[in-house]
Specification:
This protein is of the alpha/beta class. The protein is 32% helix and 16% strand. The protein has eight helices and 13 strands. Helix 3 runs parallel beside helix 4.
Length: 314
């Protein structure tokens, strides 16, 4: 299929573009950064700079305007929407909310009006609300799944929840089929030591998401399955790698760091199961993650190799 990937220069977008190209899809990538080449090298997806908060740019892009050496025949068959300011704290709240929500609105609207068949919307584990809560609260139960109550307080999680609701509205009024994915804390080769290393060095370090994470390449595999899926309507999937960071015993670790939490600890398939349940993705999408933090880190949180990005040690 002809697939557009938004946010293609981000952690999720890069992995997704690679996975879709490897699967044989005809991919166009878009982000806010300037193109690196006037013409991409052979085998490299064509890249288009676009501001998705601008409705005109989004409509033109999703509708299949001329890219590359000539006009393309009509709109894309599938769109993967991974573009977003990725978290709170680095931008003013109104910037996060307005950017993320308007970009999603414009992408969904353009997909509806252009006749796109499948939209894969990258939502977030933050939608239930407890991760960035200003007035902290605990998950109602662990592992968290798609049925967990959603009570977001922060602009990032609110925009992600509203993005899912935009997908609900789109399938009610059009033939667009939507899948929203709620990944856990996404990691790639460069970020494992920086983000997960501290949790391995300090086993008492708390994590309100139940020490859940997901490898970017495993997430990209789930996105590829979602692109290829014929599921009707709008489905939401929670995604995480099967184990906790550091192979913690989820129930034991939770009771130790949050002894007064009212969280219901539900039965697990394995003691070190993640704080996010991916059972629905296993059963409906056929997703099977195959990577682990152990591929990148020792038990003490030290990197198994050194990765360099832009000439810097990461």
């Amino acid at each position: 299929m002809r697939v557009l990937v938004t946010g293609a220069r981000g952690k999720v977008g890069r992995a997704t573009t690679t996975a879709l190209v490897a699967a044989g899809h005809d991919v166009v990538a878009t982000d806010l950064q300037n193109p690196e080449w006037d013409m991409p090298p052979p085998g490299t997806p064509h890249y288009v700079k676009a501001d998705l908060t601008d409705a005109g740019e989004t409509y033109a892009l999703v509708g299949g305007f001329s890219v590359g050496e000539g006009p393309r025949p009509g709109p894309f068959e599938a769109v993967v929407h991974a573009a977003a300011i990725p978290a709170v704290g680095r931008h003013a709240p109104h910037v996060i909310f307005s950017n993320n929500l308007m970009a999603t609105f414009n992408v969904v609207e353009a997909c509806v009006r252009s006749g796109v068949r499948r939209l894969v919307n990258i939502s977030s584990e933050t939608v239930p609300g407890f991760i960035f809560a200003e007035r902290p609260f605990f998950p109602a139960y662990l592992p968290v799944d798609e049925e967990h109550p959603v009570e977001p307080q922060d602009p990032y999680a609110l925009a992600k929840l509203f993005g899912e609701q935009l997908c609900d509205a789109a399938v009610r009024r059009s033939d667009l089929r939507c899948i929203s994915l709620r990944p856990g804390w996404v990691q790639d080769a460069a970020s494992y030591p920086r983000n997960l290393g501290p949790f391995l060095r300090d086993r008492s370090r708390p994590a309100i998401n139940g020490w859940a994470y997901i490898d970017a390449d495993d997430l990209a595999d789930a996105i590829r399955l979602a692109v290829d899926s014929d599921l009707p309507g709008h489905e939401v999937f929670a995604l995480a790698n099967p184990e906790t960071i550091g192979d913690r015993d989820l129930h034991k670790a939770w009771r130790e760091v949050f002894p007064d939490a009212p969280t219901e600890l539900r039965p697990l398939d394995r003691p070190d199961a993640s704080g996010i349940s991916s059972r629905k993705a296993y059963e409906v999408l056929g997703w099977r993650p195959s990577r682990s933090w152990r591929d990148h880190l020792t038990d003490d949180g030290e990197p198994r190799a050194v990765w360099r990005t832009s000439g810097r040690l990461e």
